Amino acid sequence: MVSTIQSLLVLAPLGQRMDNFGVNTRLFLDLSYEELAQEVASLGEPSFRAQQIWEWAWKHLVSDFSAMTNLRRSLREELSHRFSLIPFEVVARECDEDGTEKILARLGDGATVEAVFIREGPRRTVCVSTQVGCPVGCAFCATGQMGFVRNLSAGEIAGQVLYFARALKAQGERVSHVVVMGMGEPFLNYAATRKALLILNDAHGFDLGARRITVSTIGVVPRILEFAAEGHQFNLAVSLHAPYDSLRAKLVPLAKKWPIAQVLSAAEAYSLATGRRVTFEYVLLRGVNDERRHARALAALLRGKLVHVNLIPFNPVPGLPFQPPDSKSIELFRQELLAQGLDATVRRSRGVRIQAGCGQLRTRMSRGSPTS
Ligand code: SAH
Ligand code: SF4
Question: Does the structure show a pLDDT above 90 at 270?
Fold first, then answer.
């Protein structure tokens, strides 16, 4: 697979520079609108300034306070002493010929995470990370092998979208979709993830519709219920991966805490509260969860519910003892689900050629072999 890669890997600095970030500045992107309004008040400014600054950052996508030309110069200077608009520095980038682009972002404290941009027909999708590493440790996941380092802040999460949105703006384009499917478990960093989504959704700023944003969770039941109770229109994807608790627990350590029945009823509560169809993700692992009996058991669990099944052939991770099924088995699995009345698609992960699978660029960089 590696020999077919048409990718480019460059070392920093790339594009947006971190200039003064990390010294005494806070990340502006961490502020909600209400928090910005408080900052503006503390500077003795009239409240409409908050709206102006918010629009510069989230609508006009400027990366420097000096560009906020309807603010007086001393206010712009004060803001740039207090805050930075740059969430990270890009230390590596890979581009595929199909337009998929993956970055490795170095945050203010030196930690690194990945974000991926996917161009597909009219869609311009950004896939964001929510944690450095992941505490869940799924057996097939590159991020899961890294352990957990820390949660990202709301600004560090939303900043990944902003990074690509700023680059697209120069080409007259916009980010059309966001998927929270990068490194980490968003519902184990619930407050920051929620805040980031609401910032991106804000109609006076970035204005990305909730229905264009999808959060993928491994099944943190209490947080799914909390998310449901909020009543937003975000899409929910639940990573199931197995139709039996015993098998699921081998693949997803957290499954011991919340059995499949609880995960399903939380997902149902989500679709009841929001009217949204929930997606179930199922990574297909050859000889592990890809047989006909698995498809039948999966169909028996989900039949009659407002759901969609996304089958994801395993994207090989060096050092892990799994393989994807061959294409015939994948199709047979899907046909079995269809025959049982389910709606199922195969997601051929774009960017597999640049190893856009979760956590893989970071792993290779830390092994010191970015091109192997
Ligand atoms: N923690 C969340 C979101 C990040 S992972 C979750 O697990 O849902 C996003 C999706 O990528 C999940 O469905 C996950 O199972 C899948 N994934 C992880 N490693 C993979 C691999 N090596 N091949 C294919 N899919 C993978
Ligand atoms: Fe974490 Fe999701 Fe990877 Fe599991 S699949 S280790 S929950 S990022």
Answer: yes
Decide: 141 in ligand 2 pocket, CB within 6 A. yes
pLDDT tens for 13-23 read 344 545 444 45
| Residue identifier of the C-alpha nearest atom 6 of ligand 2 | 144
Nearest C-alpha to atom 1 of ligand 1 is from which residue?
185
Q: How confident is the model at residue 368 (pLDDT cuts 50, 70, 90)?
A: very low
Q: State the pLDDT at residue 14.
A: 42
**Pocket of ligand 2 contains residue 138 by CB under 6 Å:** yes
Q: Dump pLDDT digits (tens) for 124-167.
A: 999 999 999 999 999 999 999 999 999 999 999 999 999 999 99
What does the domain layout of the chain look like in residue ranges?
26-84, 90-366
Q: What are the Cα distances from residue 133, in Å, to 114, 116, 159, 167, 354? A: 10, 16, 18, 26, 20
User: Residue whose CA is closest, atom 20 of ligand 1?
Assistant: 141
pTM of the model: 0.92
Is 34 labeled as catalytic in the residue annotation?
no
CB 363 less than 6 A from any atom of ligand 1: no
| CA 269 / ligand 2 centre spacing (Å) | 23
CATH 3.40.50.720 applies to domain 26-84: no
| Residue length of the chain | 372
184 lines ligand 2 (CB under 6 A): yes
Q: 87: cis peptide before it, omega within 30°? A: no
Burial of 48 (0-12, 13-18, 19+ CB in 10 A): exposed
CATH 3.10.180.10 at 90-366, yes or no: no
Burial pattern 137-149, b for ≥16 Cβ within 10 A else e, equals bbbbbbbbbbebb
Is the CB of 141 within 6 Å of ligand 1?
Answer: yes
358 annotated active-site: yes
Q: Which residues on neighbouring strands pair with residue 217, listed in sequence order? A: 238
Q: Which of 89, 114, 156, 281 is catalytic?
A: 114
With H, G, I as helix, E, B as strand and everything else as coil, classify residue 104.
strand
What whole-number distance in Å separates Cα of residue 98 and Cα of residue 351?
A: 8
